[in-house]
Task: inverse folding
C-alpha cells in the first residue's frame, strides 16, 4: 500500500511517503508556521524524489487534531481534496496518538502526549501499548495542565509525559507528581512515518465530505459569540456564519 501521511496540526510540519510499511521519504520543518505555503511544495518534492505521481497513491493519512485551529484545517483540507480528487482512501488519526507512538512498544508506563493549548491549558490523552497495539485509555481532551497532573498523580502506575513543556505551561504547576516523568524534548516531534503505520491499520472513512478536524474546543469566534448571546445555541456556528 502506498501512503501519503500529513501532519500540520502543531508547530512542526511533517510529510512522509510510505510503501508497505517501508519509509521511502520524509521531510519535517520545525521553524515556520506558514504550513499553507510550504505543505504542497513539500509533498511535490517528495513525489519527485521517489518518482511517484498522486495517481500512484492508495491512501492519504492525516493527523486530524487536536492542535492549532489553522494547522489542523490545512492538513485535513489537503487530505480531503487529494482523497476526493484521486478517489483514494482517507484516514484520520489523533495527533496525540501520533506523538504517543514515539514511545517504544515495550514501555509499560501510561503514555500521556500533550500539546500547549494556551492559557495554561493543554490537549492531552492517555495511551498504553498492549500486545504491540497502541490503545487509547483516556480520550483526548482539553483541560488545564494542573488538572491533568492532579489526575495523573492518582494513578497507581508510572506515567510518561510526551510533549514540549513550554514556560507558560510550567508556570501553572510547582512540580511533577512522583509517578510522572517528562520525556526529553526529542520525543516531542511527531513522526509521519508512525502516522502512516497507524493509518494503514485503520478503516478509511466512508464519506469524505463530513470528515472534519477534531478541535476539542470551540473557536475564539464562537466563544465571543456566546458571550454576546448568552443562552442561545447554534448547531453549526461556522456554517451559519
Result:
Amino acid at each position: 500500500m502506498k501512503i501519503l501521511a500529513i501532519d500540520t496540526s502543531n508547530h512542526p510540519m511533517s510529510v512522509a511517503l510510505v510503501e508497505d510499511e517501508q519509509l521511502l521519504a520524509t521531510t519535517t520543518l520545525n521553524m515556520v508556521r506558514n504550513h499553507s505555503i510550504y505543505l504542497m511544495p513539500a509533498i511535490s518534492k517528495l513525489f519527485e524524489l521517489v518518482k511517484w505521481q498522486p495517481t500512484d497513491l492508495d491512501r492519504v493519512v492525516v493527523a486530524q487534531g487536536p492542535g492549532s485551529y489553522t494547522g489542523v484545517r490545512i492538513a485535513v483540507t489537503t487530505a480531503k481534496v487529494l482523497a476526493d480528487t484521486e478517489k483514494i482512501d482517507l484516514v484520520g488519526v489523533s495527533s496525540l496518538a501520533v506523538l504517543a507512538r514515539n514511545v517504544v512498544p515495550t514501555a509499560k508506563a501510561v503514555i500521556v502526549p500533550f500539546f500547549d493549548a494556551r492559557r495554561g491549558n493543554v490537549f492531552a490523552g492517555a495511551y498504553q501499548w498492549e500486545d504491540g497495539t497502541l490503545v487509547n485509555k483516556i480520550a483526548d481532551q482539553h483541560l488545564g495542565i494542573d488538572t491533568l497532573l492532579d489526575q495523573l498523580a492518582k494513578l497507581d502506575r508510572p506515567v510518561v509525559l510526551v510533549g514540549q513543556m513550554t514556560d507558560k505551561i510550567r508556570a501553572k504547576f510547582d512540580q511533577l507528581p512522583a509517578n510522572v516523568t517528562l520525556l526529553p524534548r526529542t520525543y516531542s516531534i511527531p513522526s509521519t512515518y508512525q502516522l502512516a503505520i497507524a493509518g494503514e491499520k485503520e478503516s478509511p472513512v466512508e464519506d469524505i465530505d463530513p470528515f472534519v478536524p477534531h478541535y476539542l474546543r470551540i473557536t475564539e469566534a464562537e466563544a465571543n459569540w456566546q458571550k454576546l448571546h448568552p443562552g442561545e445555541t447554534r448547531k453549526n456556528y461556522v456554517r451559519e456564519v
About this structure: The two ends are 40 Å apart (CA to CA). The beta strands are 2-7, 13-19, 22-29, 59-63, 89-93, 110-118, 121-130, 133-144, 159-162, 180-182. The chain has two domains: 2-95+190-228, 103-188. Helices lie at 35-50, 69-86, 95-100, 145-153, 167-170, 192-200, 220-228, 237-240.
